[in-house]
Amino acid sequence: MRRFLVKALQNAGFEVISFDNGLSAYQRLREEPFALLLTDIVMPEMDGIELARRAAELDPDMKIMFITGFAAVALNADANAPKHAKVLSKPVHLRELVSEVQKMLAA
Question: What is the pLDDT of residues 31-51, one digit of tens each?
């Protein structure tokens, strides 16, 4: 799934760096700024909500988007997900993903 998303975003002209777990992504976020964090919720080593929370602490202006089959979890106030995060529910069409990423980055 991650490879399809990466390819779709790259084909739309975005520079994409992908990680297979939340901890690796967080370590990279600490090293350099990113315009957008696109993450699932269920991931090994650090879940997407924790990753998003920590990313928002590093850079409050970073755009955050979840693609998940657990949208209710991300939208739950007790989850502590950043309030400004966008949530796309799986299955998501690649055109919809590209469109939503373009909108977030333009805002």
Answer: 999 999 999 888 888 998 899
